Amino acid sequence: MTATPQPTRQPGQEQLLTPGEVASLFRVDPKTVTRWATAGRIGSIRTPGGHRRFRESEVRALLAELTNDVSRSA
Predict the structure, then answer these.
(1) Which helix (H) or strand (E) holds 54?
(2) Gap between the Cα atoms of 35 and 5, Å rounded
(3) What pLDDT is stored for residue 66 in this prediction?
(4) Which of 16, 19, 32, 65 is the 20 to 30 A CA-CA neighbour of 51?
């Protein structure tokens, strides 16, 4: 298995994630992530080619929020 090189980030530049990367963080199918974006549950950016990208900070915030909600209700 080879590691995929991460693009270098410029200072102050937001890292963008693909639906597949977001899906692996949430342990869901990438189509679920696309449905969340369509429903407005998570914001997305469209590339010039029409692909969705997600801001890493927003994804991590949602993940932390959902993780905290689950741990509080347990």
Answers:
(1) strand 52-55
(2) 28
(3) 86
(4) 65
